[in-house]
Amino acid sequence: MYRLLARPLSRTTTFPVRSFRFPRATMATANTPDFNKPLYAPLRELDPEVQNIIDKETWRQYSGLELIASENLTSRAVMEANGSILTNKYSEGLPSARYYGGNEYIDELEVLCRKRALEAFHLDPAKWGVNVQPYSGSTANFAALTALLQPQDRLMGLGLPDGGHLTHGYYTAKKKITASSIYFQSFPYSLDPSTQLIDYEGLSKQAKVFKPRLVICGASAYPRDWDYAALRKVCDEHGAFLMADIAHTSGLVAAQELNNPFEYCDVVTTTTHKTLRGPRAGLVFFRKDSAQASDLEKRVNEAVFPACQGGPHNNTIAGIATALYQACQPTWKAYAKQVIKNARALAEALSSHGYKLQTDGTDNHLILWDLRPLKLTGSKVEKICDLMHITINKNAVSGDANAQAPGGIRLGTSALTSRDMLEADMKVVADFLHRAVQLSLELQQEAGSKLLKDFERVAAKSEKVAVLRREVRDWARKWPLPGVDVSQLQKPAGWHDD
């Protein structure tokens, strides 16, 4: 289906490229019993169904435009590390304090990963430490809460409709939705309706009444930077911890293109697969000299294991280490700058079509597009874009009352930048999106109702959608796909082009 690249692709890359080959040691011997022979078979021979699904997903990524803000395209090197023999090793505990033997190289790997994490974010190891074992950002967040709080302690996070994350204490009037609201008392702060920026003054007033033990800053759908100093002031007034969840922006923070949360926070968490462009996992950074607690290293490490999870995924830690190595290189800053340039170019192009964007632009990789003035839901635009091979996600915008039918969509430029696209290319992307929205309005009228199922029915039969799909597909296939030799791609069984 595809071969791994021997070097990164660029606009001037020529083919063919030498293919990756497994060493002969992966072959069974003459004495290998039948029950072990499947251990040596390549996936394509052993399990063609799974291989076909992988082939179709590869073809989908190659044939479309990835605009989901929480996704990126990782490198060949990260994929190699993540798919390595390290997946075989179990290693509960920390380096030099494992519950299993045979971990000398796993210890070496984890120590290296921690070192690179601190280097990538320009941190003094005398003042900061990091746990690299969390399986995901949500796991990292709950481990941080477990380390900082007692059950039913109070926390404040940005409300979900205003761009916050589920793990920051989200609940509804009828139900506590996530563990962060089930096990702790939470109270959301919000945006200023007039500016759509964080209402720091309102947060300060709420904190005087609620008296939180923890304030969480960070978001999953907020296109502007954060005033960490203002949040630190609020926390100091109440003896509270300050935690930043920089899952979306950590790659930009590492490049020093955004404000630095480490100057003010006690704990910083992040995923590793968004703007940091690594495998899917999480990190928890902790301040060793926190004024609120002198034992955060012990508390965080024990919260990760054994409180919240078991043995770490060592193959993933290898992928994290490789991604962090890349983030330490001079080229990383150029990538981060381009991500932001592309986001701003895309925002400007959409604005030029007359569309409303939350805060009228962006400081990071993310754009929040308000469709409510068009009387159109994010669900319908997401559906049309899916049919066109443009991947986006519906998203609540500030003031939304119905989470099931959000009034906006969220866009991100990290993955497009990883496919070599620049500012001029964002104008092409914006034109595709503009045409998708205009067609959505037309199909909504044709459907004769506002129900999503009626909209989907007419969209599935629309020749105009098919025309747009072909245009997007042909344009997307002009670009490289990290880790894949696109000259060797063959259309997999089950994939149907128009």
Automatic annotation (TrEMBL):
Required cofactor(s): pyridoxal 5'-phosphate
Residue numbers of N6-(pyridoxal phosphate)lysine PTMs: K274
Assigned EC number: 2.1.2.1
Pathway as given in its UniProt record: One-carbon metabolism; tetrahydrofolate interconversion
Keywords, alphabetical: One-carbon metabolism, Pyridoxal phosphate, Transferase
Reactions catalysed: (6R)-5,10-methylene-5,6,7,8-tetrahydrofolate + glycine + H2O = (6S)-5,6,7,8-tetrahydrofolate + L-serine
GO molecular function, one term: glycine hydroxymethyltransferase activity
Segments forming domain Serine hydroxymethyltransferase-like: 44-432
First-level EC class: transferase
GO cellular component: mitochondrion
Taxonomy, superkingdom: Eukaryota
An annotated GO BP: glycine biosynthetic process from serine
Annotated function: Interconversion of serine and glycine.
HAMAP family (alphabetical): SHMT (MF_00051)
Family, similarity comment: Belongs to the SHMT family.
UniProt protein name: Serine hydroxymethyltransferase
Organism of derivation: Gloeophyllum trabeum (strain ATCC 11539 / FP-39264 / Madison 617)
